């Protein structure tokens, strides 16, 4: 009997956040002042900086938007809702100067370093934020930006298509090209057609998901024989 493997089976890219993140990012402590944070962002050409404690645990993030808001609305609450007072020129390092703990946005969206790129991309897409703090064992180890993800997936669909057809169905499974259909759009691979065995379908999905540039695998492959199903032994009459 013909059967269809799980229509909604999805296999994420096997690469992880660790492989594309920006490691050892610039950080500031909770007591770092606004002027020093602004100088860091300007000098390093970055749009935001994580705020960490003495154990490298992430407390929050201060962005350019936070600094602009503090300048435009010096009496408004920022970050955790603390009220800021207008700074005077002579107060560059005074107790009244806004600190990172008052400016930062918290809590921060973070992702484990071993999370798949596909999962991290979905997290960024749903949240609408521009970057994720990457943690390992509760400590900050990197930052993942939208640009990092784009570079990680920067591979033409035609190259992905060529590799799926030649390496997965050709070299690995020995399946004629006329037996299957492969479509690729923005890194999402759609597999169509029918193979002989269920194990072949599972292998095709797995191998396709490991190809660099693949964001997601949508399986529409069917199979003729479920070789993973062991027939029940017939009762033997005495």
Automatic annotation (TrEMBL):
Disordered as annotated region, ranges: 77-98
Compositionally biased region (Basic and acidic residues): 88-98
Pfam families with a match to the protein in the record: BON (PF04972), CBS (PF00571)
Residue span(s) of domain CBS: 21-77, 104-160
Protein name: CBS domain-containing protein
Basic residues bias (residue ranges): 77-87
Keyword Transmembrane among record annotations: no
Organism superkingdom: Bacteria
Domain BON positions: 157-225
Zinc found in the keyword field: no
Gene3D superfamilies: 3.30.1340.30, CBS-domain
Keywords: CBS domain
């Amino acid at each position: 009997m013909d059967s269809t493997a799980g229509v909604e089976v999805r296999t994420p890219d096997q690469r992880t956040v660790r492989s594309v993140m920006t490691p050892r990012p610039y950080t500031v402590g909770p007591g770092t002042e606004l002027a020093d944070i602004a100088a860091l962002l300007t000098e390093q050409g970055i749009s935001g900086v994580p705020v960490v404690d003495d154990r490298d645990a992430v407390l929050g993030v201060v962005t350019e938007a936070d600094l602009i808001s503090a300048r435009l609305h010096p009496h408004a609450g920022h970050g955790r809702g603390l009220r800021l007072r207008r700074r005077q020129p002579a107060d560059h390092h005074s107790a009244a100067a806004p600190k990172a703990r008052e400016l930062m946005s918290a809590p921060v969206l973070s992702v484990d370093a071993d999370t798949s790129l596909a999962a991290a991309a979905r997290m960024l897409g749903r949240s609408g934020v521009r970057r994720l703090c990457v943690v390992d064992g509760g400590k900050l180890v990197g930052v993942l930006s939208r640009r990092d993800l784009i570079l990680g997936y920067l591979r033409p669909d035609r190259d992905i298509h060529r590799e799926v057809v030649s390496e997965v169905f050709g070299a690995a499974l020995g399946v004629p090209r006329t037996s299957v259909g492969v479509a690729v759009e923005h890194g999402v691979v759609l597999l169509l057609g029918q193979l002989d065995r269920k194990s072949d379908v599972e292998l095709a999905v797995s191998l396709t998901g490991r190809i660099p540039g693949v964001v997601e695998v949508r399986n529409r492959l069917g199979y003729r024989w479920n070789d993973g199903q062991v027939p029940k032994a017939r009762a033997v009459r005495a």
